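Researcher: Next sequence.
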Amino acid sequence: MNDVKTLGLIAAGLMLLQACSPQVPASNAGPGFNDYADYELERARREASLAGNGSTTFQAPVTVQSSAIGQSSSIGSSDLAAAGIGQSTAPMSSSNVAPIANTAPAAPQNNTGISDEQDFDAVASRETIESDAARRAQQASMREQIMPTALPTRSGHEGANIVEYALKAPNRKGQEWYSRSVFATQAKYQRNCAKYTSPDAAQRDFLDSGGPDRDRKGLDPDGDGFACGWDPAPFLVAAGR
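Model: Next structure:
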C-alpha cells in the first residue's frame, strides 16, 4: 500500500515538473511569423517598398535557407507579386518621353508705325536717287506758306492802359502831384475802394473817370495820381527803369 502511494507521489511530481518547464520554440519559426520563409518574404517586401516598390525585377524564385534547421523554402514569383515585389515599371525611353522644344525666338515683326527713314539699308532697298528727289518735290508742293498779316484791332473800349500810364507818370507813389478837394475824406476813400476787386481795376476806373486830374469818387485823396494804393513801381522795374 505504501509503495502505491509512493509511486503516485512520484508521478505527480514529474507532471508538476513538466508543467513548469519552459517551452522550446520551433527552430524554423521566425520572429512574429509562422516560419522563417514568411519572415524573409515580409522583410523583402519592406525593403522593396523603401527602395521604390518595384525598382528591382525578380526573375526567379527566392530560396531562403534556414541555418537553424538546414531546411530551404522556395518563394515563388506569384508570392512576390502578391506582396507587391517585382512589379517594375517600364523604363523611360525616347519613344514615350515628349521632346523638349528647342526653337529659336521668333524674329521681330516690322512695326509699320515706326519710320525706318534713318536706316540706310531699308531706304536703299526701295528708293533710288530719282525716286527720292521726286518724293521730296511732292512734299515741297504740298507745303503751304502763310504770309504775315496785320494784328487784329480790339473791338470796343477796353479801358485805360495802366501800363502806359505807369511808364509815363511824372511822379512816384505817395508824392503829391495833383490838387484834391477838401471833401475827399479817408472814410469815402475806404468805402469806394472796397468796391473794386483789385488795385489795377480801381486805377483803370479812376483814369476812365477823369483821373488823374480829377477825382470824382475820392479814390486818390493824397493827389499822387494813383487810386486805392495802386503802385506803378512793378511796371517801371519790368521796363528797366
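Model: The beta strands are 62-66, 71-75. Confidence is low (pLDDT under 50) at residues 54-73.
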